[in-house]
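quick one, 239 residues, struct below
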Amino acid sequence: MQSRLGSGTIKVSFINEISLSMKPIRNRSDIEEGLEYLKNCDPRLSIIIERVENAGIEVPLRLSPPDFKGLASIIVSQQVSRASADAIFGRLCEQVSPFTAENYMKAGEEGWRIAGLSRPKQATLAGICSAIDEGVLDLSGLCKLPAELALEQLTALKGIGPWTAEVYLLFCAGHPDIFPAGDLALQEAVRKAFNMRERPDDKKLRTITKKWSPWQGIAARLFWSYYAVLRDGREGTPV
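---
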């Protein structure tokens, strides 16, 4: 049996083998295990961990169910402040209850407008609903795939870029080895941590984070926490 993704064909047995070997982040013990690994693989991170701890900021677990609501909350948070995203999503939850793809479509354009959802985001969420309804997208099953395959499926949907897909896999799937290198807060936190003159772009940051595998997901949480330290405790995580 085979699964066809994009232009490549990958044996399901191979996918399952990788999936079973991937340990998802599920609790505080996983956070601690990842931080201990990071200390050993890159001594520079010991200093960052110490600074975060001394500031009284906990490296967050922050997991949401791997469902339509979890993905929708991330899409709402695209390119807006945390406060704005919380307000818009709160109003959207009032219009869509329970928060399912079916009920989102039932709310219609009037409900989406009342919530304050922009037209591009309305269209993105409607496209996701169609993909779910047609059986093209299985958000729960997606979380069992290796990161590269899951990212490929998500970013194939209009309106979902690498940042959205990576944040979903981090905070809904609990994927341990994802680092959203396009996130400006992470770029700035790494710049400050390593005394870099310029903020590293996506490509350069991915080069830096490779050595933190297979716990890049914990490193991302750490640097979001460090960004909060730089901002006197104000959160930097996108969800």
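The first helix runs from residue 12 to 21.
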